[in-house]
Amino acid sequence: MSYEASKIRLVMELRRQGITDQRVLGALERVPRELFVPEALRSEAYDNIPLPISQGQTISQPFIVAYMTQELQVGERSRVLEVGTGSGYQAAVLARLCRRVCTIERYRSLLAEAEARFRELNLHNITTRLGDGGKGWPELAPFERIMVTAAAEEVPLTLVEQLAEGGVMVLPIGGPGVQTLYRITRGPDGVAQEALLDVRFVPLVDGLPRGRD
């Protein structure tokens, strides 16, 4: 089956799973997921499953990418902070929906590979940074939207502080194993939390890796 046929099949499956936002589905159709997975796994690029990438990380299941993006409710003028660039796939999807994506990755090699993919796809509205994602990007805050693609033990207050009033953050919370995906909304009277569904993500790790990465 061709990539295009596999992509159509995937989009139909996502619709059946409750992804109704046409902008989100359109963004997934426009991003070639096969460029973001290891070459040996490209035949599985449009299967609705997570796939391994380097540094013990994963590219998330397409449903999770679509669901988190839908729940983030990204507007065309939004500035979005992404914590955990990974392969760059989620950032590429977000870039089709908003004004600017600012994405942070702690592994230098992953970031370099993602940046090369962004250049290949002419995604010029993505700004990258090598760093500790848990600290956010205070120089560019506040952000209208924040997406965290690794699981923290609890809601990172540093990231909440970088969320604009009226802003939304979507992130997994919990220890190893099954976590809960939350949507955090910062309003004039404080912060509201809404549990969405159970997920599995790699942990959000403090600091940068030692040695070569």
Q: Which properties best describe this structure?
A:
alpha/beta; Rossmann fold; 7-stranded mixed beta sheet
How would you describe this structure to a colleague?
By secondary structure, this protein is an alpha/beta fold. It has a single domain (3-199), classed as Vaccinia Virus protein VP39 (Rossmann fold, 3-Layer(aba) Sandwich), CATH 3.40.50.150. The protein has 6 helices and 9 strands. It has helices at residues 3-16, 22-30, 62-72, 89-95, 108-120, 157-161; strands spanning 51-52, 58-59, 79-83, 100-105, 126-130, 143-148, 163-173, 179-187, 190-199. Strands 5-4-3-6-7-8-9 form a 7-stranded mixed β-sheet. A two-stranded antiparallel sheet has the order 1-2. The longest helix is centred in the N-terminal third of the chain and has 14 residues, at 3-16.
Q: Return the domain count.
A: 1
Using DSSP, what is the number of strands? 9
CATH homology-level superfamily: Vaccinia Virus protein VP39
Shape descriptor reads globular
Identify low-pLDDT runs: none
CATH topology: Rossmann fold
- Describe the strand arrangement of the main beta sheet, using strand numbers: 5-4-3-6-7-8-9
SSE order, one letter for each helix or strand: HHEEHEHEHEEHEEE
Query: Regarding CATH, which class?
Result: Alpha Beta
What structural category arises from helix and sheet content? alpha/beta
What amount of the residues lies in strands?
25-35%
Task: Please give the largest β-sheet.
Answer: 7 strands, mixed
Straight-line distance between termini: 35 Å
Radius of gyration: 16 Å
Annotated CATH architecture? 3-Layer(aba) Sandwich
Number of helices: 6
Q: Residue share in helices?
A: 25-40%
In round numbers, the mean pLDDT is 95
